[in-house]
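re: the backbone from monday

yeah here it is again, tokenized this time
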């Protein structure tokens, strides 16, 4: 029996593959396109969550004691397990999230690549090293290392239920922590599958990765369960509530929140390539991508051509749940209402939909909006649907000004044939990540940190920053030999401080 088939098995002791604990309440996970039940899972209460975290503590110690090589070996076994069962997992993602099977494969592939990088680079990034002691402590050796936090809580999203949480799970595990993962209540089967896969691939430290299921109350319980850190991915309003719950116990948080990402298309851009990237960046995954392109600012010389290219490409897209569909349904039904509200506001305020603008059940037609005022919610707020606004600007500087006027600051893109110009615009874009002549590429490069500024959150996953995010820096000094005069002693001579001042004057005083 496959893990996906086990998800449908509900007994008195367990819902799916998730330990019920003493919880009696359950909830159903359903296919957003058909409403069919995918699985039944427990609504873990505060007691169940705390029991899970407490069970993870000794596992965290055993996991940390394995060292970098031991953890790398087991992380490799886990990624091998995922790779061999990729189609099974992709099918489950398709049924529970709604995205096409091929898109699910791409998502899983990226997650496996990040899992590999984290395991391979943990020692180099976090291992003990010696640093310069400086003049005042020349008789000491100074050491720095990064130690695990213990148990890390991860609250994941539904839009990329494998790739996004793995950005925290993989890096937290590689850093030596145990993980308790609460997947979105819209994709609990995917989270349960990932945890069950871990238990199968790493049976000797099975409790180093566990899952709890439920809604907001379960997530709040995880915040209060005494984890060493809480990594959250979701909306800014929910992020504020998570931070408030974590503040009760001074639990540090990592916030990966929403975005209203923009693309700048400069005078000299490859218009066809920019249009192709904009359509993928805005429409793939039904637009349910935090780093997706929701706004485009095209300069006057290329605006008409760009609109024509985008329109032609979007005209060939069709939502659906079949293999030929370009993208799937809105995973969360309420998100369709957000999309509708933004479309209504855009058109009522002077904008026009040259394509799309319709909703049929859970499916939103691909929509291209022009002439939308900057004050519209379709420009100011995260839409999270298969829509794109295209605005004519005088030049790239105006485009950058409008791009940076957002309260969000997650990611963005710049299209220009001038490397110097493109890099300058990318650096000045108020975002945590920017791609030049492509979209979303930074997410696929494990060595690059991922995260935003402003309403898009703080902290970083991926890369060396992502590994360090799940550790505490530990500083150690060791005296190698005693100095004739100990400055940090009440026995020091009265003239010692003046002597130190003279030395500092010689070494540093000449600088103006």
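seq for it, each position gets an aa:
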């Amino acid at each position: 029996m496959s893990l996906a088939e086990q998800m449908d098995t509900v007994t008195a002791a367990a819902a799916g593959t998730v330990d019920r604990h003493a919880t009696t309440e359950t909830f159903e996970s359903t296919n957003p396109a058909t409403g069919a039940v995918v699985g039944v899972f427990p609504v873990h209460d505060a007691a169940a969550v705390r029991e899970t975290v407490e069970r993870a503590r000794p596992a965290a110690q055993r996991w940390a004691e394995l060292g970098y090589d031991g953890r790398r070996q087991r992380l490799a076994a886990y990624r091998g397990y995922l790779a061999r069962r990729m189609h099974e997992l992709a099918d489950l993602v398709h049924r529970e999230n709604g995205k096409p099977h091929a898109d699910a494969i791409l998502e899983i592939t990226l997650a496996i690549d990040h899992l590999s990088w984290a395991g391979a680079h943990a020692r180099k990034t976090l291992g003990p090293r010696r640093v310069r002691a400086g003049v005042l402590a020349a008789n000491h050796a100074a050491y720095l290392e990064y130690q695990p936090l213990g148990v890390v809580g991860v609250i994941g999203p539904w839009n990329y239920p494998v790739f996004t949480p793995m950005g925290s799970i993989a890096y937290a595990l590689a850093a030596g922590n145990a993980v308790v993962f609460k997947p979105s209540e819209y994709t609990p089967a995917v989270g349960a599958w990932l945890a069950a896969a871990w238990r199968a691939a790493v049976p000797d430290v099975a409790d180093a990765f566990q899952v709890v299921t439920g809604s907001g109350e379960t997530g709040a319980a995880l915040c209060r369960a005494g984890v060493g850190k809480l990594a959250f991915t979701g909306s800014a309003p929910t992020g504020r509530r998570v931070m408030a719950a974590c503040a009760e116990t001074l639990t540090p948080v990592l916030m990966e929140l929403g975005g209203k990402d923009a693309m700048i298309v400069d005078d000299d851009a490859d218009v066809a390539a920019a249009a192709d990237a904009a359509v993928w960046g805005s429409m793939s995954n039904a637009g349910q991508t935090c780093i997706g392109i929701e706004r485009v600012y095209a300069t006057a010389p290329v605006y008409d051509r760009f609109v024509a290219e985008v329109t032609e490409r979007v005209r060939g897209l069709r939502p659906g749940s079949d293999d030929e569909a370009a993208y799937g349904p809105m995973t969360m039904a309420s998100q369709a209402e957000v999309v509708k509200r933004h479309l209504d506001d855009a058109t009522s305020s002077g904008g026009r939909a040259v394509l799309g603008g319709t909703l049929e059940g859970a499916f939103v037609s691909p929509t291209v909006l022009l002439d939308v005022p900057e004050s519209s919610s379709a420009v100011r707020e995260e839409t999270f649907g298969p829509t794109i606004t295209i605005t004519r600007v005088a030049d790239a500087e105006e485009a950058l000004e409008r791009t940076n006027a957002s309260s969000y600051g997650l990611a963005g893109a710049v299209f220009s044939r001038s490397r110097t110009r493109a890099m300058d615009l990318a650096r000045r874009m108020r975002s945590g990540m920017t791609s030049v002549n492509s979209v979303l590429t930074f997410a696929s490069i494990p060595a690059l940190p991922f995260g935003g500024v402003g309403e898009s959150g703080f902290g970083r996953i991926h890369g060396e920053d992502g590994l360090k995010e799940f550790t505490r820096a530990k500083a150690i000094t060791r005296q190698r030999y005693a100095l004739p005069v100990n400055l940090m002693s009440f026995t020091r001579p009265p003239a010692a401080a003046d002597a130190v001042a003279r030395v500092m004057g010689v070494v540093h005083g000449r600088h103006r």
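Confidence is low (pLDDT under 50) at residues 7-16. The chain has 17 helices and 24 strands.
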